[in-house]
User: Fold these one by one.
Assistant:
Number 1:
Amino acid sequence: MTTPTTRLYNTLTRRIEPLVPIQPGKVSMYVCGPTVQDVAHAGHGRTYTTFDVLRRYLTVRGFAVTYVRNITDVDDKILAKSREAGEPPLEYSRRIAKIHAEDYAALGLAIPEHEPRVSEHIPDILEIIERLIERGHAYVAETPKGQDVYFAVRSFAPYGKLSHREINDLLSGARIEVGETKRDSLDFALWKASGKDGWGWPSPWGVGRPGWHVECSAMSMKLLGEHFDIHGGGMDLIFPHHENEIAQSEAAHTPPLANLWMHGGFLQVDSEKMSKSLGNFVTIRDVLVRNDRESLRYFYLGSHYRGPLNFDVEKRDDGRIVFPGVDEAERRIEYLYAARDAATLAAADAPAAIGKALPQQAAIVREAKTRVLDALDQDLNTSVALAVLNELAKAANEIAMAVQKLRKDKAQQDAARALAAAAVHAFADACAPLGLLHSASEDFWARTKAQRLRTRNIDSVILDQKVLERTRARQEKNFARADAIRDELVALGVELLDTPETTTWRLNVG
RNA sequence: GGUGCGGUAGCCAAGUGGUUAGGCACCGGUUUGCAAAACCGGCACACGUGGGUUCAAAUCCCAUCCGCACCUCCA
C-alpha cells in the first residue's frame, strides 16, 4: 500500500515534485487574480479553471485547502478606463469585478476562501514597503509628481531564481519610463505618487498608489502568512510579477515565500497567445452565449494545463461565429449526461447487492474514482481523467443496455440494476475533483435546449408541430412524408430520436 | 541574444525505456420502417529531423530544425 502522492511541476525547480504541505493535512494556495480593467476572456477562464480543479482535487484528497485569489482593483489602466466610462475608479473596478465573478461562477469555479482587493489592503502594503526601506531594500526617489518608492533589485541576491534569468541579461531589456528616477533600471516601483490624477491613498511619501507587484506580497502575507504552499498564475506572470513578489516578500521576511510555483499555459488563437493587445480574444461571455458552461470547462480540461491550448474560432457561411473545439467538448458533455441518465434509469428499483454481473463494466465502475485521482496526482493530468470519465460513460451505457436485454433473467437483471446504481455514484465521485456534471440532468437538457433555440432563433412550438406531424405520418406508414419532414428538421440541426411509440428531438451543437 | 512551453497517426490529445490513454472523423455490424442515438468490431508500418546509448527508445544522451511565449502591462 503506497501513500497517494500529489506531484506537481514547480517552476522554481523546473521539475515535477511531491507536494509536501507545510502543515500536514493543510494546503494554502495563492493565485494571482485578474486586474479588473475589462471583462474576462477565455484565457483567464483557463487559468482559473486549472486552479479550481487543483483545489477540488486537493480537497477530495483530504487536504483542508485555503485558496486565495486576489482582485487587482487599483491600477493605471483601471483609472484610464474608468475615466472613459465617466465613473469613479473604484466604482468602475467594482462593476467589472462583479462581471468577472458572474463569469467565473458560470464556469463552475468555486469561490475562493478569500478574494482580497488591493484597495482594502493599503495599510498592509504600506507596512511592507516601510519594512523594505528599513532593511535597505527599497528607497525613496523624488519625481516631478512627488515621491516614489522603488525596490532595489540588486540588494536581493537571489533575484531571478524563479524565471531563471541572470540579472545582467535583464539589463538590455529593462526600460526606464519618463519621469522615473530609479537608481538602477532594474528597480521597480513599490509606490508611485499620484500626481495630478489625484487617485490614491495617503502615505509617508504623500498621496500615491501601490506598484503592481507589492499588493500580492502584502495580501498573501496577510491571509496566508509569510510562508505558504502553492503560488500560481498564468505563465506570463513568471517574469516580472512573480519574480518581483519573491524579491519583495523574501527581502521583507524569512524566505521562502511559497514552496511550489505553478504556471498555466496560454490559450491561443491560430497559434498565437490570446490577448487584449492582439485583439484576438474571445470573452467568456462570448462563449457562454453559444455554448454551455460545462462545455467550456471540459474543453479546458481536455489538454494539460501547462501546454498551449488552441481555441478555434470559425465563421460559418450563414454568418454565425462558432467555436468548434468547445462544440466538440459540448458533445462530450452531452454524452456524459446522457450516459448518467441511462444509468439512473436502469438503476430504478435496484437491489443493494451488486452480484457478479458484467465484470468488465463492474471493474470500470469500481475503479473510476481512483483512476481519476491517480491521473490528477501526476501534475493534474486532466485529459487522462476525462478519458476515465468517457470509459465510465461507455460502461454505464453498456450496463443500461444489459438491463434492457436481461428482462427474462430477473436475477441477472437485478445484478445489472445494482451495477447501474453503482455507476451513478461513480459519476459523482469521479466528477467531483474535476467539477463536471454539476447540474441535475433535467436542468442541463433544459438550458442547452433553450440556448440552442435562442442562438438559432428557432421556435420550439414549430418544431413540436413538425415532429407531431411526422409522428402521424409514421403511424399511417407514410414513410415518404415522415422522411421528408425529418430531412427538413435535420437541415435545421434537429436530431430526432424515434422510439416505436413516440419521437423526441434535440438540437445539435454548433 | 537569454529563458521557457510545444512539435505524437486525417484531426484533437495522453504517454516519457519493453503489454500503444481517450476523443473526433472514417469503415463494417447490432438495433431501426429507414435513420439518429446507444452498443460491438475495425482503423492507422504515429511519435519534427539526424546521430548515439541499450537486448529494447516516442520515452535516455548529443546535435539540429520549426511554432509559440516571456525578457515591457498581460491569466
Note: Chain A has three domains: 11-285, 326-431, 458-507.
Number 2:
Amino acid sequence: MPDAADPAAMNARRKFRREGEERRRQDLIEATLDSVAEHGLQGATLRTIALRAGVTAGLIRHYFPGKEELLQEAYTALVGRMTEQAKAALVMEDASPRRRLAAFVTANLNAPIIDTRVFSLWATFIGRAGADSTLARAHREGYLGFRNEVEAVVAEVLAAERRKTDAGELRHHAIAINAIIDGLWIEGCLAGEMFSPGELAAIGIKAVEAELGLAPLEQFQEK
Amino acid sequence: MPDAADPAAMNARRKFRREGEERRRQDLIEATLDSVAEHGLQGATLRTIALRAGVTAGLIRHYFPGKEELLQEAYTALVGRMTEQAKAALVMEDASPRRRLAAFVTANLNAPIIDTRVFSLWATFIGRAGADSTLARAHREGYLGFRNEVEAVVAEVLAAERRKTDAGELRHHAIAINAIIDGLWIEGCLAGEMFSPGELAAIGIKAVEAELGLAPLEQFQEK
DNA sequence: AGGCTATTTATACACTTGCACAACAAGGCC
DNA sequence: GGCCTTGTTGTGCAAGTGTATAAATAGCCT
C-alpha cells in the first residue's frame, strides 16, 4: 500500500505485465465492446476502454492505428461471433431436416443469442452502417452467410417432403424466414419479459412451418 | 456585402429573426434528427445541430434544459412519426379486412417507411434503450401501439373468415406478423438494392397470409 | 547477471464539447 | 416614435477528446 505522504511513493510508476500480442488485442476488443454496450459510441473513449482493459490509453495506439480501426475490428469480431453462434445450432448431423430447422429457430430465439447486450451492440453499430462502408461490408457478409445457411436448410426440408421448388421460390422462403427470426429476435431482446420462456421459439417455429406450408409434426399437434 | 478590411463590418453582429416558439423547437428537433442520422450520436453536437437549424449553439439552451432532453424529444418525435405513418395505411374504411391487411403490409414495406435515414435513426436510438429508460419507454409505447393495431386487423380478418380464435392465439399471430414486417423492413432498409420493387411487399403478404392460414386471393393465384 | 528491445506508462498538446452568462437587438405595445 | 420584454448572439471556461512522443521497465537472450 503506497504511502500518500511519501513523495517517492507518489511518483511511483504503475507496475505492469507484458502480455502476448494476440491476448492484448483480444482484451482491448472485448473492452471496446463492453464500453460501447454500456455507454454507446460516444461513451466508448480511449481512456474508458483502456481502463476496462486494465491498461493505459496510450497503449491502444501500439496495437491499433487509431480509434476508428479499433471500432471496426470490434464490430467485425461481434458479427463473427453472432453468426458463428447462430449457425452452431445446425450441426446436428443425424437429425431430420425438419428437426434441424426447428432447432435452428429455437436456438436463435433463446439465450445466449437473445441478449440485450448483444442487441445494443448490434443496433449501435448498424446505425452507422449507412455512413461507414467498412461496417456496412462487415454486416453484409454476416447477413448473407446467415441467409445462405437458412436457404440450405429450407432446401433440405422441402426435398425431404418431396416438394419441387425453383430457385426464386427458395430465395423468397429464405428471406421470409430470415425476417421472422430477425423480427422475433428483436422483440425478445427489447422486451424479453413480455414473453414466457420458450414462447418466442414456439411462435417462430409455427410461423416458419406455416411459411413453408408444412403440416405440424404429430407430437406438437394438440388433442 | 461586408468589407473584410472594415473593422466595423468585421465586428458586425449576425442578423436574426425571432421565430415562434413551436417553430423553433420543431426546427431544432429536425436538425437534431438530421445530425444524428448523418454522423451518429457522437456527431450530433450542439454546434452542429445549431448550424443546421440556422441558429447559434447558445439558443438551444433557451428551448431545452440540456442536450439529453433535446435528444429524448427528438426520439419521441421520430417514434411518433413512424407509427403514425405506419398506421395511416389502415384507414381505408370501405375495403375488406383482407385488403386492408395487405395494404398495411405493402405500405410498411415501401417508401417512405423503408428508408435508410429513418433506419439509421431508429437503430442509433434503440441501441441506447437498454441504458436510457426514457428512450426505452418511448419505444415500448410505439411498439405496443403498432402491435395492437396489427392485432385488431387480424381479428377482423379472422372474423370475416368465420374462424374462431382465442385471445392467446390472436396474440401469437400479432407477434409473428409484427416480426415479419419488422424483419423485412430491416432487410429492405439495409439492402434495398438486393430486392426488386414490390418484391418485399409480395414476400410479406405471402408470409402473413401463410401465418394466418389464408388461401391466396383469387386474383393473386397463378394459372 | 547484465544488456537490449519492444511493450507499456506518463505527459503534453491542440482541439472539441456542453454549459454559463453577459451583451445585444427584434418586434410588439403604448 | 420610443421603450421593454425576451429571443438570440457571442464569448468564455473547465472538462474531456484523440493523437503524438518521450521516458521507463519487463522479460528474453546470451
Note: Chain B touches chain A through 46 residues (CB under 8 Å).
